[in-house]
Recover the amino acids of this structure.
């Protein structure tokens, strides 16, 4: 499932949220409890090997979770009492424990697809999906600034390490000798620069506490972004962006590959970094923002706006971040596999069928070598 590039080799496991879990497991480090409808688990698939990665979340994939859950009948029954209008689905991502409100239109008992909202890098238009990310920070380390510093020197380069919706490292494009507005195909030809950025990424990941050593750093997080000032440049469509159309320019890498647009979680983290005085991102912002209260980010396919809201008492802590996306079903099918282990045999997992635990969360914890015993204990305390 997927294609030959890291940004397209992805799976989301979607299931109704087990409400008993809210009283037994506290995953949202920010303390924002709320009634939840859906759990979803993001899985990244290796493109050159058989690796299955559950280290972080994918914001763009989260766009499809609410409409998919609605169409698949996974939501509470009261949601389906209305067959038209606006619906909000409350989602938990099991990889990070973070919460998302997905708001979209339904028409005739199905999530709306047709609309006039367009996104740079996405063909055509669609119905708007509003995503409100709650407390979009500390997804991996529990801190906005994992190293405790706004600026760090890593592998000889000045960087800002920010743990937002996903952890990210920001470095000035000019410091590593790369054109900040470079396009992916040209970037792929710079193997030495890509190797340098991967070394910086791994060293920074250790400094952030994400991995104990560089050889254990996950392949997809943290991501690394090259930041430069807003400038007139071409994007992948062949069109030219003017410098006044953006507040800054960012080029992100994932799994050593340049992104053709910008990962949504990386955009959220960029917006958070832009609100923290002294970070590399904040230093390179345009003096006059394109839109008040929003950060307009230039990427290889165009631009994207994120509206971050910071805590009034502590301006370095984000309370929420809002973005708008689209999604539509492309096809429906079945995937078959061969499992050589019998369910329930010694050494294998026994999930059961009637519990209120999250199977996706169990999958994430097992991949991280953590216990899942608390997920399979019923309300009376029996395993």
């Amino acid at each position: 499932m997927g294609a030959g590039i890291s940004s397209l080799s992805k799976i989301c496991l979607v299931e109704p949220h087990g409400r008993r879990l809210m009283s037994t497991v506290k995953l949202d480090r920010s303390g924002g409890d709320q009634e939840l409808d859906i759990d979803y688990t993001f899985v990244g698939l290796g493109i050159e090997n058989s690796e299955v990665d559950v280290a972080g979340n994918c914001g763009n994939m989260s766009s499809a979770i609410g409409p998919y859950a609605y169409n698949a009948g996974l939501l509470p029954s009261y949601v389906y009492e209305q067959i038209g209008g606006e619906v909000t689905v409350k989602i938990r991502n099991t990889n990070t424990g973070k919460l998302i409100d997905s708001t979209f239109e339904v028409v005739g008992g199905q999530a709306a697809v047709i609309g006039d909202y367009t996104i740079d890098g996405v063909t055509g238009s669609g119905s708007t999906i509003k995503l409100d990310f709650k407390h979009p920070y500390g997804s991996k380390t529990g801190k906005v600034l994992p190293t405790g510093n706004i600026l760090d020197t890593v592998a000889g380069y000045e960087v800002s390490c920010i743990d937002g919706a996903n952890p990210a490292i920001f470095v000035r494009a000019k410091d590593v000798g790369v054109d900040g507005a470079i396009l992916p195909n040209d970037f792929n030809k710079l193997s030495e620069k890509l190797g340098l950025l991967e070394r910086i990424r791994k060293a920074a990941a250790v400094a952030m506490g994400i991995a104990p050593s560089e050889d254990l750093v996950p392949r997809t997080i943290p991501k690394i972004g090259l930041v430069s000032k807003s400038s007139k440049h071409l994007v992948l469509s062949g069109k030219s962006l003017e410098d006044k159309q953006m507040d800054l320019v960012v080029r992100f890498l994932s799994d050593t590959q340049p992104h053709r647009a910008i990962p949504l979680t990386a955009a959220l983290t960029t917006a958070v970094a832009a609100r923290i005085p002294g970070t590399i991102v904040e230093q390179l912002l345009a003096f006059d923002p394109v839109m008040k209260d929003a950060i307009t980010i230039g990427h290889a396919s165009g631009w994207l706006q994120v509206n971050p809201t910071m805590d009034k008492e502590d301006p370095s802590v984000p309370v929420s971040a809002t973005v708008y996306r689209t999604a539509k079903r492309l096809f429906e099918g079945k995937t078959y596999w061969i499992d050589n282990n019998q369910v329930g045999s010694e050494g294998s997992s026994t999930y059961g069928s009637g519990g209120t635990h999250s199977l996706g969360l169990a999958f994430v914890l097992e991949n991280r070598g953590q216990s899942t015993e608390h997920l399979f204990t019923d309300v009376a305390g029996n395993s």
